[in-house]
Amino acid sequence: MLDLSVPGGGAGGSQPIFAEASACKFGPDDDFTKSVYIQNNGTQTISYYLGTSGGTGPLWTDSTNGFQLSVTRNGVAVYNGPLQMPDQLFGQLARGGQDGVLFRVYLPVTAGNAYQGLSTTIAFNFTTTVVP
To answer: How far apart are the C-alpha atoms of 87 and 31, rounded to whole Å?
Structure first.
């Protein structure tokens, strides 16, 4: 049985990570951070992956001046780069294991006036596989 959960959400369901950020207005060098705990409630060790999808426009497609993402897992940096990110292995969790994950989304100081008034919506996608 596989069961990866984020508190407040459920396995196979959606849980907003940055719900309160939807009303935020980012300027160059502004950021928004959020901590979540990832827990393996299943019966087997799993590997879990994280990727993003759904964005549009230059905030999503511009890998230099668009939104950036940094992720730490249990205090260790595991990703720092464009918010548009293909699935990447983030860790393994034994049965009952839990990781603390900190997300930081920010707009680089180099973002110019062309980014004013733009918006985008992004999904953070977790995928799991059973470790043989």
So the answer is: 23
**pLDDT by position in tens, the chain (length 132):** 334 444 455 554 555 555 555 556 677 878 888 888 888 888 899 999 999 998 999 999 999 999 999 999 999 999 999 999 999 998 899 999 999 999 999 999 998 888 888 888 888 888 889 998
Q: Hunting for tokens 């950020």 — which residue is that?
A: 21
What's the gap between Cα 79 and its chain centre? 10
For the chain, which domains are there?
4-10+25-130 (2.60.40)
C-alpha distances in Å from residue 4, one per residue of 10, 44, 83: 8, 11, 23
Q: How far apart (Å, rounded) are the C-alpha atoms in residues 114 and 107?
A: 13
Single-letter residue type at 38 = I
Q: Is the pTM of this model over 0.90?
A: no
Residue among 22, 27, 126, 119 at smallest CA distance from 71: 126
| DSSP, res 66 | S
DSSP 65: T
